From TrEMBL:
Residues 32-141 form the DUF4440 domain. This is Ketosteroid isomerase homolog. SUPFAM superfamilies: NTF2-like. Keywords: Isomerase, Signal. GO terms for molecular function: isomerase activity. Residues 1-19 form the signal peptide. Coiled coil: none annotated.
Length: 153
């Protein structure tokens, strides 16, 4: 977690530029929001072909199951094994940071793991950060961090 904050701090110091000169931040935000929500829908549905299309081959995910998954095929295997499976999934993007060829999205998620998945049936509040990168003319999810929010004592 400390590493994530260091990375975000470094990114925040960079000058904010739009990835494509002819695209406004509002247009780019709309595009990234559409992709971010398509990613959420694909996770919810277990849509492996859609996830394959949305994510970079070298995607790295700091997963809320306390493991770092460093490649797309390993992540897709977790979906196929039912480790990542939900009966409800709601994502709310809150903040967008714009950099050259990169957009960082931070927000919240509320998920309910499906039967057979860890924490099945429990409503879990989560914070997430998705980093979308422009590669060969396509925006792809390159880095994701999601952590479960602990309930207050």
């Amino acid at each position: 977690m400390k590493y994530l904050f260091v990375c975000i701090s470094i990114l925040a110091r960079c000058s904010s530029v739009c990835a494509q000169n002819n695209v406004s931040h509002e247009q780019l935000q709309a595009t990234i929001t559409r992709l971010d929500m398509a990613h959420a829908r694909a996770i919810f549905k277990g849509d492996v072909p859609a996830l394959d299309s949305l994510m970079d081959d070298d995607v790295t995910v700091n997963h809320p199951t306390n493991r770092i998954v460093k490649e797309k095929q390993a992540l897709l295997a977790l979906i196929n094994q039912g480790v990542i499976r939900y009966s409800a999934f709601e994502r709310s993007p809150e903040t967008f940071l714009f950099y050259k060829d990169m957009v960082v999205v931070m927000g919240s998620e509320v998920v309910v793991p499906a039967s057979g998945a860890p924490d099945a049936g429990k409503t879990i509040n989560r914070r997430y950060t998705n980093i979308w990168m422009l590669q060969a003319g396509r925006w792809r999810l390159a880095v994701r961090h999601a952590n479960n929010v602990c309930s207050e004592l």
